[in-house]
């Protein structure tokens, strides 16, 4: 029955399920999963008790899981309250469909509805069935880690922040416990463990009883333990160093300790801001997020959290923020908003109070464009986007004051907007090449006949809110891929603010208008004069389009009111009506200056024309190519350079060893060492110098060791038990040397033979032996293939063997030192 392995398999599954915690708001899912694992374990035990074939092990586990789910979720429809019936199975199917719909409706963490709880219990139970079958019944414990790892892949795919290292560590410990239990059973299957009597450290006195800890029989596993420690040390080193060498795995520097670049900057990383948008919109309690007071008598504007400037073909995100101490808020005015130069902007002061229940709000919701923010804590500003963020603080429970410049442009001012700066064009008109042709054509068809960027933007907005046949629907799944965008624009036409904002921003870029997606909150509801309340359902996303002179301007493609986002509103400057006769735009009556003769001739060219005039062919090409947000080859080139450098280490070590070996023989020696004098031909007749006088035995040994290393490097067999003469004879027959090579090999072998077995000195000088070694090395290289020659140069096995031996010795010394330190308290007690 393998009860111990059954228990360990269940514990490993339960430990692995801990990694699912980011998916749920409540903790009841864990109890449901625990019950499912217990039921599967009982089913597996019963199958093994009856000695049924392996497929029945999985079948009994599935039946036990079905009974457990029936008792927990469909007892009223089951026979006798626990036997599955057609009614109970239908009820479970309906619950599963409801849970699937809720999972698509909510963003993680999801509320623990009955259907979602059923899905969690069933998923954990299915993993338990696989683990029990592989590890217990089939005795394949290592592959059982794959279904355990699959549970971690779900939160890693759904949430950008993934799983904490604590949860992963718990699951890893569970799997390691399963492996150790299996190893113990396999060793026990061979019989009684072989033990050895450990030698006593002290000889007991006559008549005294030996200490139990000194004479206990223990398993003689010193070599096995040393190998295990070496494997563990190498595994830990690889796990620590490999992520540091791969670009993109450690965004905060080597080993994640530096936290930035050399100039003190740090990359700000946060979860995808759009992940929580749908969750906020679909919260059942519609909780209050914040309240604020404003002196804006004309009505407050949206509160912006994020400005998403990158579109990768699937989703909108913001470019990595490089934060430094210079970006901290210290009471001084913030950087000026990009492009805002009109004199009609007015100053607005807003006092915001965020509810204490709000968690992980590391970006401040502020009206655009903030000019000054007063708040306690370490808060910083991103100058290009004016996003306010913190590296360690949260806005929950905080109060702060924001002074902002609110621009209220007229349609005529937007229509006369100047030429786009090149940096705006290159960054905010970038479109990936994989955008379908239908979407590109659709953007041009919708805006056909418009002569200004404002007219194009108004047509896009009107198409989404009125003419395009779109429907606001919170039950639509969040877009994850480019195909979802195509389906929204061309087929389903159902979605919520994320789809509307993302689609309009993309289509604006396609026709040449700089755009981005903003996310935050609508103004909310006014509870008393000047005081407003913002709830979770006021979360919103909208596009921002750039107009020179006004900067970033908000548009509203999402339907508002009862049939859409309840508190969204369309800005007044985006309300001009488009005539049906040929593309001329009539501006509202509130803008009489639009019909003046001066304005007729000053109308700016279209957005695409402004882009071409300003950026030229290079700027136009930038629409297709990625810029800052695109692919950067620098990290990968750095990683490739690092890998190439690491690959040259064995080759450099081999060259260093060879040089050190011969350099030891040519160390300068004076007359006290018995070196013969040598007259200097360039100096006076009585001036002499001293030549090196190497020991012939040392030179012979060095030549022999060098030839042995060359043979191993080229993959030739080297028999340690052969004499030098036998080795030379075998290598000569193997290599078919020419006369020079044969004489060189013979001289090296004879020199080693005389140095090893005879008291007489070798007649060969070191220079001759060194040249002979070079000749033999060339013969080795000529006798093997190209792959062996490359390996001998790049990854010489002799160096790798010496490195392994050095590491083994170091590990053994460290283990011996640790053992001595471990025994130190016992020795001190005995001496005391």
UniProtKB/TrEMBL annotation:
Domain named Transglutaminase-like: residues: 489-559
Recorded superkingdom: Bacteria
Pfam families according to UniProt: TgpA_N, Transglut_core
Gene3D superfamilies: 3.10.620.30
Keyword Transmembrane attached: yes
Assigned keywords, A-Z: Membrane, Transmembrane, Transmembrane helix
Region feature (Disordered): 563-628, 666-696
Segments crossing the lipid bilayer: 29-47, 54-75, 112-134, 164-183, 633-653
Keyword Transmembrane helix: yes
Protein name: Transglutaminase superfamily protein
Highest classification ranks of the organism: Bacteria, Bacillati, Actinomycetota, Actinomycetes, Streptosporangiales
């Amino acid at each position: 029955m393998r009860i111990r392995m059954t228990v360990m398999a269940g514990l490993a599954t339960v430990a692995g399920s801990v990694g699912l915690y980011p998916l749920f708001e409540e903790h009841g899912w864990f109890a449901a999963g625990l019950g499912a694992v217990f039921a599967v374990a009982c089913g597996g035990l019963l199958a093994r008790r009856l000695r049924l074939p392996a497929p029945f092990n999985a079948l009994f586990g599935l039946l036990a899981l079905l009974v457990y789910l029936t008792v927990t979720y469909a007892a009223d429809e089951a026979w006798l309250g626990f036997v599955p019936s057609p009614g109970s199975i239908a009820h479970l199917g309906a619950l599963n469909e409801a849970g699937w719909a809720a999972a698509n409706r909510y963003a993680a963490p999801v509320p623990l509805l009955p259907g979602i709880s059923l899905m969690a219990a069933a998923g954990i139970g299915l993993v338990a069935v696989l683990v029990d079958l592989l590890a217990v019944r089939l005795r394949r414990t290592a592959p059982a880690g794959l279904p355990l790892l699959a549970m971690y892949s779900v939160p890693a795919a759904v949430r950008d922040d993934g799983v904490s290292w604590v949860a992963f560590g718990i699951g890893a410990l569970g799997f390691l416990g399963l492996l150790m239990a299996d190893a113990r059973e396999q060793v026990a299957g061979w019989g009684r463990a072989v033990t050895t009597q450990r030698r006593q450290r002290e000889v007991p006195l006559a008549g005294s009883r030996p200490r139990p800890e000194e004479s206990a029989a223990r398993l003689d596993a010193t070599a096995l333990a040393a190998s295990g420690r070496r494997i563990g040390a190498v595994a830990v080193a690889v796990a620590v160093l490999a992520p540091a060498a791969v670009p993109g795995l450690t965004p905060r520097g080597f080993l994640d300790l530096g936290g930035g670049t050399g100039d003190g900057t740090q990359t700000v990383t946060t979860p995808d801001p759009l992940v929580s948008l749908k969750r906020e919109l679909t919260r059942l309690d519609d909780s209050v997020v914040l309240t604020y007071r404003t002196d804006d008598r004309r009505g407050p504007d949206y509160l912006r959290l994020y400005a998403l400037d990158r579109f990768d073909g699937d989703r909108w995100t913001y470019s990595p923020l490089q934060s430094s101490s210079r970006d901290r808020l210290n009471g001084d005015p913030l950087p000026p908003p990009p492009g805002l130069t009109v004199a009609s902007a007015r100053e607005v002061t807003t006092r915001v109070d965020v509810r204490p229940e709000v968690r992980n709000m590391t970006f401040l919701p502020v009206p655009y464009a903030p000019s000054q923010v007063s708040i306690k804590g370490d808060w910083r500003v991103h100058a290009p986007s004016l996003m306010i963020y913190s590296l360690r603080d949260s806005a929950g429970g905080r109060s702060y004051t924001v002074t902002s410049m609110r621009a209220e442009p007229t349609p005529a001012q937007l229509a006369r907007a100047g030429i786009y700066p090149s940096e705006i064009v290159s960054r905010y008109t970038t479109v990936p090449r994989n955008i379908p042709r239908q979407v590109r054509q659709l953007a041009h068809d919708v805006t056909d006949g418009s002569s200004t960027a404002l007219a194009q933007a108004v047509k896009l907005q009107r198409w989404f809110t009125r003419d395009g046949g779109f429907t606001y629907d919170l039950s639509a799944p969040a877009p994850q891929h480019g195909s979802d965008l195509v389906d929204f624009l061309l087929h389903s036409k159902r979605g919520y603010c994320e789809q509307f904002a993302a689609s309009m921003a993309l289509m604006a870029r396609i026709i040449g208008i700089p755009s981005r997606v903003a996310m935050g909150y609508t103004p909310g509801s006014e509870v008393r004069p000047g005081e407003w309340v913002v709830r979770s359902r006021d979360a919103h996303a909208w596009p921002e389009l750039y107009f020179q002179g006004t900067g970033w301007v908000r548009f509203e493609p999402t339907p508002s009111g009862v049939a859409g986002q309840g508190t969204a509103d369309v800005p007044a400057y985006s309300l001009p009506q488009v005539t049906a006769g040929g593309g001329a735009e009539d501006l509202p009556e509130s803008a009489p200056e639009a019909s003046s003769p001066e304005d007729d001739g000053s109308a700016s060219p279209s957005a695409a024309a402004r882009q071409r005039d300003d950026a030229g062919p290079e700027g136009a090409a930038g629409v297709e190519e990625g810029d800052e947000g695109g692919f950067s080859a620098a990290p990968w080139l750095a990683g490739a350079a690092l890998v190439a450098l690491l690959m040259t280490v064995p080759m450099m070590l081999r060259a260093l060893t060879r040089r050190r070996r011969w350099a030891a023989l040519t160390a300068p020696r004076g007359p006290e060492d018995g070196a013969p004098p040598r007259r200097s031909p360039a100096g006076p007749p009585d001036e002499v110098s001293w030549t090196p006088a190497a020991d012939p035995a040392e030179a012979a040994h060095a030549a022999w060791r060098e030839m042995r290393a060359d043979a191993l490097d080229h993959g030739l067999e080297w028999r340690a038990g052969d004499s030098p003469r036998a080795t030379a004879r075998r290598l000569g027959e193997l290599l078919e040397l020419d006369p020079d090579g044969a004489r060189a090999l013979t001289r090296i072998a004879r020199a080693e033979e005389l140095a090893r077995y005879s008291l007489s000195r070798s007649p060969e000088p070191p220079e001759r032996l060194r040249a002979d070694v070079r000749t033999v090395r060339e013969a080795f290289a000529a006798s093997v293939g190209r792959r062996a020659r490359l390996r001998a140069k790049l990854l010489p096995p002799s160096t790798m063997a010496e490195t392994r031996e050095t590491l083994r010795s170091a590990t053994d010394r460290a283990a011996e030192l640790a053992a001595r330190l471990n025994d130190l308290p016992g020795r001190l007690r005995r001496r005391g």
